[in-house]
Design brief:
Elements (H helix, E strand, L loop, with lengths): L5 H29 L4 H27 L5 H9 L5 H25 L15 H24 L4 H15 L8 H7 L12 H23 L1
Length: about 220
């Protein structure tokens, strides 16, 4: 990252995250249209495109910004002292903005409504635990490569996410900025955040009100 000012690094993070989310959502739309209702085939196509774009954008932008494209990665770099607090917070902000822009770009490319809200729920305890596993694995992949094989980061991350799509219950978001971007797309790759928690809270509230009514009537 030597020789690049903060504005250029933030631009790289914005563009990289936007391209990542556009690839995730766009390939999901294309796969869904062409797979004939075969969800496994659609997910496979979505996986390959995501892993491939990760290799490309990390290779391109790593010399500029470090190619984080992920608030979790930027947070770890802040903790390690490799990114100061102000820059780290700005990284996280532009990553989220980039994720939202990526969803918009994908919709425009396929002639869909630009602004959407996902309706597919992918939440609950198993999914959140899967996200913990996916994120932990991603971070140790990155840190291990930085220490022992820095030239292999791009391919290692691409391959890890390609694998984690299939061995995690959540299809491995492992990235809050991407998760936010996906929440703005009601397509194959879209996901509605916190739906189950909200539904669970409503059901609990209804049960509590019924219980009070029953007590009052008795």
């Amino acid at each position: 990252m030597e020789g690049f000012d903060l504005a250029r690094r933030l631009t790289a993070e914005t563009l990289g995250t936007a391209l990542l989310v556009a690839a995730v959502i766009g390939s999901g739309i294309m796969a869904d249209r062409l797979s004939g209702g075969n969800d496994a085939l659609a997910l496979l196509c979505n996986t390959v495109a995501t892993g491939a774009i990760l290799v490309v954008i990390i290779t391109i932008f790593a010399p500029v910004s470090g190619a984080h494209f992920n608030p979790a990665v930027s947070l770890v770099m802040m903790i390690r002292g490799e990114l100061d607090r102000r820059d780290g917070l700005l990284y996280i902000l532009v990553q989220i903005v980039g994720g939202c822009l990526g969803a918009l770009f994908a919709h425009l490319m396929f002639g869909l409504d630009p602004i959407q809200i996902a309706t597919t729920a992918r939440t609950g305890l198993p999914q959140w635990f899967a996200e913990f596993v996916a994120t932990f694995g991603l971070l140790i992949t990155i840190l291990g490569c930085i220490r022992f094989r820095p030239d292999a980061v791009a391919f290692a991350v691409g391959l890890y996410i390609t694998s984690a799509y299939w061995f995690t219950a959540s299809t491995s978001f492992a990235n809050p900025a991407v998760a936010i971007g996906r929440s703005l797309s009601d397509t194959f790759a879209g996901t509605r955040l916190l739906t189950c928690r909200a539904s669970s809270w409503r059901r609990s509230s209804e049960r509590w009100r019924r219980r009070r009514s029953a007590i009052g009537c008795s």
